[in-house]
Amino acid sequence: MVKVNDIKAYVQEKLDAGQKPQLYAKTARITAREGVVGEEIVTKMADGHQETKNVVKEKGDMVATNPNGEQYIIDAKTFAKKYEVDPANPKQYRPKGGAQEFLFLKEDVQFTAPWGEEMDIKAGGVLNISGRDSGDIYGIQRKEFNETYAQCDKQGTPLKINPQQFTR
User: Fold this and answer.
1) Which of 20, 43, 73, 133 is an S-S bond match for 51, by CB 3.0 to 4.6 Å?
2) Residue 143 DSSP code
3) CB neighbour list of residue 82: distance below 8 Å, 6 or more residues apart
4) How far apart are CA 142 and CA 78, in angstroms?
5) What pLDDT score was predicted for residue 162?
6) What count of other Cβ atoms lies within 10 Å of the Cβ of residue 32?
7) Beta-ladder partners of 44
8) Residue 31 pairs with which residues in a beta bridge?
9) Domain membership of residue 16 as a residue range
10) Which tops the pLDDT comparison, 115 or 167?
11) In what order do the strands lie in the sheet with 126-131?
């Protein structure tokens, strides 16, 4: 595992070395509920790997659950930008974030996520670098990424959608 002290610099090194960001859009629907201030959420993968943890900081922050059961916290402002109620199923939220940039990892990395906690991403996983200018860089494990994202064009239109993402 490579301990990364400055994730922005790490990403810039990869870009300077010629690694090209890939465009993907989240396609999976999620469920979400308002979190309780002070509530801690540990993000665990289906294989038991603990990716990170986070604490609900403000009223309105949301606890999101992906179709595979992975939970994480999204602050209220970001949630409103990235999700909307799915009219076809009002108990779910559909993504509206569009195209995002990702770098695929060739090594296990550990770094401090934007919410101040350690994040451990295994080789094969990805870094979402869409917010790299502001330092909003976070990781997603490969299996969970494949289950919730699809490669897309610059407008965010998926090139191919996994239909299972809509039936869970």
Assistant:
1) 43
2) H
3) 26, 74, 95, 96, 97
4) 23
5) 56
6) 18
7) 50
8) 65
9) 2-166
10) 115
11) 136-140, 126-131, 100-104, 22-26, 149-151
| Helix segments in 63-154, DSSP class H | 76-82, 142-148
Tell me the sheet residues that pair with 33. Answer: 63
> Largest alpha-carbon pair distance within the chain?
45
Kindly state the tokens that stand for 156: 């965010």
Q: What residue type is 100 in one-letter code? A: Q
- 94 in Cβ contact with 29 (< 8 Å): yes
Question: Structurally, how many domains does the chain consist of?
Answer: 1
**Dist. CA 147–CA 82, nearest whole Å:** 18
| Tokens 């490969």 -> residue | 142
Q: How far apart are CA 147 and CA 164, in angstroms?
A: 8
Across 105-134, average pLDDT = 96
pLDDT over 60 (residue 9)? yes
